[in-house]
Amino acid sequence: MMRQVGRDPGDTVRAGSPSPSFEELRETEGTVRKRLLWAAAAIGLLLLLGACAPEASQDTLQPKGPYAEKLNDLFIPVFWVAVFVFVVVEGGIIWISIRYRHRKGRDRIPAQTHGNTKLEIGWTIAPAIILAGVMVPTIAGIWDLARKPPEDALNVTVEGYQWWWGFEYTDDDMQTSYGDNKQIRTADVLVIPEDRVVYLSLVGAGGQIVKDDPADSDYMVIHSFWIPELAGKQDVVPGRTNHILMQADEPGMYEGQCAEFCGLQHGRMLVRVRALSAEDWDAWVANQKGRGVTPTDGQASQGMDLFLGQLSGGRGSCIECHAVGGTDATSEAGPELTHFADPTHECFAGCIWETTDREALEAWLRDPEAVKMGSKMPDYDLTEEEIDALVEYLYSLR
Amino acid sequence: MADVAIERGGDPDAAHAETTTGLSNTKLAMWLFLASECMLFGALITTYVLYRGRSLVGPYPADVFDIPYTSVSSFVLLASSLTMVLALSAAQQRESGRMRLWLLTTALLGMTFVGGQVYEFTAFAHEGLGLSTNLFGTTFYVLTGFHGVHVTVGVLMLLSLFGMSYARRLPDDPSFPIEMVGLYWHFVDIVWIVIFTVVYLVPTPNPGGAGGP
Amino acid sequence: MATVTTTRREGILRRPMATTGFWSWFTTIDHKKIGILYGATALVFFLIGGIEALLIRAQLAGPDGTLLNADQYNQIFTMHGVTMVFLFVMPMSAAFFNYFIPLMIGARDVAFPRLNAYSYWLFLFGGLFIYSSFFLGGAPNCGWFCYAPNSIFDPSVGPTYYALGLILTGIASTAGAVNLAVTVINMRAPGMSLFRVPVFVWMGLVVQLLLAFSLPIITVALFQLLFDREFGTHFFDPTAGGDPILWQHLFWLFGHPEVYILVLPAFGIVSEILPVFSRKPLFGYQFVVFSGIAIGFIGFGVWAHHMFAAGLGPVANTAFGVSTAIIAIPTGVKIFNWMGTMYGGDIRFTSAMLFAIGTVTMFVIGGLSGVTHTIVPHDYQQTDTYYIVAHFHYVIFGGAVFGLFGGMYYWWPKVFGRLLHEGLGKLHFVLMLIGFNLAFGPMHILGLQGMIRRTYTYPESLGLTFWNQVATIGAYLIAVSILVFLVNVVVTHRRARPGDVADPWDARTIEWMTPSPPPIHNFDEIPTVHALDEFWHRKYVEDERTGRLVPAQAGAADGHPAEVHGGGHGIHLPSPSYWPLVAALGMPIISYGVIYSWWLLGAGVLVTMVGLYAWALEPSVASGDV
User: Fold this and answer.
1) Residue range C46-85, pLDDT digits in tens
2) Per residue in B79-89, is it b (16+ CB within 10 Å) or e — as a string?
3) What is the DSSP string of A255-315?
4) Tell me, what's the ipTM?
5) Nearest Cβ partner of C147 from A53, A144, A261?
6) DSSP A240-251
7) Which residues of chain B fall below pLDDT 50?
8) A55: left (phi over 0), alpha (psi -120 to 50) or beta
9) Which residues of C touch B134 (CB under 8 A)?
10) Side-chain half-sphere of C184: how many Cα atoms within 13 Å?
């Protein structure tokens, strides 16, 4: 092995001529700086472009209630601490890289330092102190969120199905007027009053649809309920009950999604929270307590007969899975349809279509598999007339 | 692992006869392997303990266990550790006849244990406890089954040593391979002591009321 | 001896004796050839996993992507994760460990050469077994951590392949771990105390111990999953009282040490490269070693930070939050020591050095986002989003993959006797660095803006399109950089200019005292080691008058590669063997048997037993092979 001739007398070594393979290695002078500029420009450009990106509707950085705010308030200071450490460490590495780069034609053997115990102790303790600073509010936050809800909280049980969300309002004053005074149930949209703490109990559900083909059955699996703008997520674990505290400061619509992989259509298991003002809330509760509407219009009542009866030719029945309050349809295997067309029930089938989108609803009834692969909604080979009638009936359920 | 023990048995590694620690590579590997096995059984036993008393339906442990019977078969397995030591001692004294006798005895005791386990499984199955009956069946069969497979592998190694000794395929000083297989054998015995205690001796609370159905 | 090609009657089959030629690759038990096999196989899996990544990014390039349907997407993202973790980073690390641990500690081979071959073949068959599922009813579709009970209920055959395939590669890794750990502990050259071994070897030892103690846990979990799916047990079945959280505990008890299994090899590589190209010893050697041990040890106590949102309760979340914060400390110590190594050095920006610096700088980002996970309440927002995807790609791609490429540029001349082209290497680095940051940087933002991971689609209304497009561009830029690397490999091996490859970097450790590539027996004479960085100390001595380092004059010939050629007579090495391959071949047959037929299972057991017994009865050195 040959080494380059040095010029700096104190710090250098003399040796033979440079080896050929070394030439290529020496072309780097100045490129570090150029590359840095390049990278900085690229990042700047990106951020500029990013500013043009549309608003995200599940943004954790835009909390819309006190519980989500708490999380964000914990995160932001740590984020800046991380930025500080990032700048110091990365800046240090870049500075060292430039300051101590090899210079062409100057072969130097640097001082062979092996370490420094004081420094080691220092850079062990410094991060420890920073991390301790991070952990104190974190631990306080963990216990804060684990507290029992206030007395006047609204209690809702959240049920994760494959692949949609069901909700049951479990408070005593949320009983319906029909049936066995069952509790108010909804699907896909969780309706809550503004400015009131909501205490969610998360339970695994599903497993009631059992078909010959295992692919058509649904299963009780883990989901994770997440409304980013209102609260952090918690997993829905079969056999356990987890809880989320959330509150919306303003009336409005808040989007969310199942966050834990739960099978084929995990990506399309969406959910919305609709927060209502006090008077809208009262009206909504009053309406929900009532039974499903019995339609008078011809086509809709034809649809009701189809819905509640057996489909011709032994194709099956809607009420194997669905419930409409006050009728014979009481199954909880599929989404509750009692107030399907209520304005708050904005979306259906895992919240992937707007309820008002008639074509989507028709397509869904026509061939669920075609529009949501693996869906547990069976394809009953409905005729166009049957579909029209059923859609009319569903739209009458306000 | 059987292969390693036998492969290196007494056959000094041509490429590196001396080792840094003075321990033979094979012995060190065997200890590491057994440490790794501790985690395997640790995970299995932990699963059993976590699910103790959480079966939704019977039969429960108290319904099927025959403690005296299992105690006897446990004793048989423990006795095999003694005969294993005797085999090693014979090997160290280069008494290959006596060594073969004790090897065979150890293997027979091991087979007796496995046979007892098979009988026990059959008896439990007759009482309605299958692999998929409840959590007890699930965790019990898989834990003790894993152990049974380990004993079976040990028996195969013992019989292999026996056969190799008969065919004069063992080195002049056969104590090293015997010691390695012995390490494994004792480990499997110790694991059984833990399993026997945790599974059979510690009483399991039955869900759904006192004494079970 | 390297050209002996005769075969002779030995036991049942003719004993293979060839150490060169095509067929020798199937019977080799030389740690260097096995290392190359590991590396080549891992690289192929890397390309496959990369294509899967490109499919993922193409699907997510815009809202409502239709390139893949939900089923295909779930298979692709699962196989991407499984491939990159189990079939690329782990075996690529194994390649480096296999090749360089014996060379760096002055051994002629690993402790159990045939077991080493067995590990490789079993890993290969395990990988092929998992991939065969694409043609036999569908690949695993449950994510790389395959959470129960979704995985036990899933009606496709995929999760069964997942369980069996990972059991196979797990057995391979366990055998390899025991083998390499014994090698490091027991086969060091005279004078090479544990505090004179290179940090890479130390990290190798820590990783092997992590493997040996964590793999059995997931093996149990995989068996339980398999039994639940195939034999009706109820380990994770909530309808029978089973607890799905058990799977998560068992998985992450393995899964977190696994993270360090993935990055510590790269840390070891970086700890070799930085000193060489700074021309300084590693700063704080003991601290780097001990922080590595500490990381490995604490790594077993942080697993539940993957489960903060699973509802373990505030006590567990507090405990695991704190332990997670603690593990950041030794990691920081490593980074500061690397900076200390470069400080005051004479830094030469070779491709290897650039990748090493890239590793450090990118890992810092992953580490810092990791610290934000310790804010447990905010982790309720982060977990299962693209923020996590960003984090672990900065750790595993930024940390491990950059480091592994650094190792390739650094050691390529040692292994193949040729220097990779430096210009193309730098182009590779720059493209990969930019592509990597474009691909994964925006994922931090996407995650915080509410993009869940493992989603095959997203509606336009979520406002996630822009950053997804940026990420996709970045991913394809990474692909271009990998193409540059492949071109580099081809160009390098077409050029007829090996150059001076004995010690091209003025290196410090004793693997460079052998010719490049090393002879089959590694060292003609095992060197006696007097110091850490032994080779460096043989090349340079301290000038007594000035106290500065000067090249050793006459003494430089001591152990210099130039004079080591042509020896090796009379060194007995274990002979090649078919049996590890045969014994390993039985295992996938058993696995297919579990799925399809008891007869097949029996056949597999038979093949395995024949392989093992023939292996056991075969002398390790063929008689007459002198």
Assistant:
1) 999 999 999 999 999 999 999 999 999 999 999 999 999 9
2) bbbebbebbbe
3) EEEE-S--STTGGG-EEEEEEE-HHHHHHHHHHHHSPPP---SHHHHHHHHHHHSPBGGGT
4) 0.91
5) A261
6) --EEEEE--SSS
7) 1-16, 208-213
8) beta
9) 234, 240-241
10) 27
